[in-house]
Amino acid sequence: MLIPREKTPGLSLPLVGGGTFDLSTEATERGTVICFYRGLHCPICANYLKEFEKLVTDFAERGVSCIAVSSDTQERAAAMAEKIEAKNLRFAYDLPLKEAKDWGLYISTSRGKTSIGIEEPALFSEPGLFMVTPEQTLYYGATQTMPFVRPHFKELVGALDFAIANNYPARGEYTGAV
User: Fold this and answer.
1) Separation between Cα atoms, residue 90 and residue 85, nearest integer Å
2) Can you tell me the distance from the alpha carbon of 26 to that of 20, in angstroms, rounded to the nearest whole number?
């Protein structure tokens, strides 16, 4: 389990369009929002990522970079970026499922073709949303066992405004006896 205020796992993956995303060298004032999504086969992910795309500049104005990550191949990740008409949101691909588990993501098995007629991979990770500080410590995290009912990006922007104004620390860091 990831613990707030503690270092997250590393994350270094190829980017759609070329280059590499490396969390350890991400140069931001306040951190990075990482949205792990299920893959091209998921219509809910497409709608979710469209909302993320709309707010990338809002996050950037607050000193936060954004990335969408999946275990999809380059071709499938590029198709998702095209599908949502991404102009600002970066897409990383080829997430090893072992690394997905290191981030606390749940893994699902294929059920064949989805409602939009796209085959699910044999194994893929379920959604997760994280904000990681520039020091690569966990500030916020949410993982899901299903594609439904995800955190809202607009609320995360609002929460970020509150956290900045009030120097609000990451919460959930206690690991002692209860």
Assistant:
1) 11
2) 10
Query: Which residue type is seen at 145?
Result: T
3-state secondary structure of 42: coil
Can you give the pTM of this predicted structure?
0.97
- Specify the pLDDT at position 35: 99
Domains and CATH numbers, the chain: 12-20+29-149 (3.40.30.10)
pLDDT band per the 50, 70, 90 thresholds, residue 26: very high
| CB-based contact 19:101 (threshold 8 Å) | no
Q: Identify whether the C-beta of residue 131 lies closer than 8 Å to the C-beta of residue 23.
A: no
Nearest CA-CA partner of 49 in 85, 75, 18, 13: 85
80 contacts: CB under 8 Å, gap ≥ 6: 37, 39, 40, 45, 46, 49, 68, 70, 72, 91
The reported pLDDT for the residue numbered 2 is 97
CA-CA distance, 142 to 127, in Å (whole number)? 8
